[in-house]
Structure formats: C-alpha cells, structure tokens
C-alpha cells in the first residue's frame, strides 16, 4: 500500500499590486542623490520636496548676518537712523538664509542678500 501525500508545491499566485504613484505638482528638486543643484530659494520659508527624505516639507531657516547686514546697519547708523540700526539683523532679507529640511536636516538651498 502506497499512500503518497499530496505534494504541496510552491504554487503561489504572483502578487501584482497595482501601485499607483500620484505626482503632486510642487517644486521637485533636481533628481536624486548627490549632485543635486540647490534650488533657488528666497528669504522666506518655502514648501519643497526634500531630495533626501522625499517628503513634502516646509523648509526650516537658519539665518546668519553677512557683511552686507553690517553694511546696512552701518548705513543706518551714518544716516542717524539710530532706532533702526539693529533692524537689518532681524530682517531675513538682509541676511544670508539657509534652508534645511525639518525632517532629515538635509540642506535645501541658500539665499543671500
Ligand atoms: Zn528631508
């Protein structure tokens, strides 16, 4: 008597997931990986797609005063605009602004006055 057990072969049906990628029309940074050209950014926080984590993020800003910021302050000082001397240090427009991804900290681009 030969009772052969039914062979359970690997009969797995191929899973074909209908992957639909929807494209959101926002700023797409140059391609993938390194070598991406930094996007032209302004002095305000802006909405971009991070090339590193691929997330749609609002850039976080890191500002630093530049020589021109001091120059602005000095000009105001010379023009006797005393109360406004420190103004250039508070306005992003007069400073160098660096945009970073708040998720992964990837450098997005920089703006300078
Ligand atoms: Zn990121």
TrEMBL record:
Membrane topology label: Peripheral membrane protein
Q: Where in the cell is it found?
A: Endosome membrane; Late endosome membrane; Lysosome membrane
Coarse class of the protein's main subcellular location? membrane
Q: Which GO terms describe its cellular component?
A: late endosome membrane; lysosomal membrane
GO molecular function, one example? Answer: zinc ion binding
Q: Where are the transmembrane segments?
A: 71-91
Indicate the segments forming the LITAF domain, all copies: 29-113
Keywords annotated in UniProt: Membrane, Metal-binding, Transmembrane, Transmembrane helix, Zinc
Q: What PANTHER family does the entry give?
A: FI16615P1-RELATED, LIPOPOLYSACCHARIDE-INDUCED TUMOR NECROSIS FACTOR-ALPHA FACTOR
Regarding protein family, the annotation reads:
Belongs to the CDIP1/LITAF family.
Record protein name field: LITAF domain-containing protein
């Amino acid at each position: 008597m030969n009772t052969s057990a039914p062979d359970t072969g690997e009969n797995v049906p191929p899973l074909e997931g209908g992957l639909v990628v929807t494209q959101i029309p926002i700023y797409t940074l140059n391609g993938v990986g390194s070598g991406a050209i930094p996007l032209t950014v302004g002095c305000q926080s802006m909405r971009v797609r991070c090339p590193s984590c691929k997330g749609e993020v609002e850039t976080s800003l890191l500002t630093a005063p530049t020589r021109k910021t001091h120059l602005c302050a000095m000009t105001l000082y010379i023009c006797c605009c005393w109360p406004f001397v420190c103004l250039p240090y508070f306005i992003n427009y007069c400073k160098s602004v660096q945009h970073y991804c708040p998720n992964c900290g990837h450098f997005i681009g920089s703006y300078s006055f």
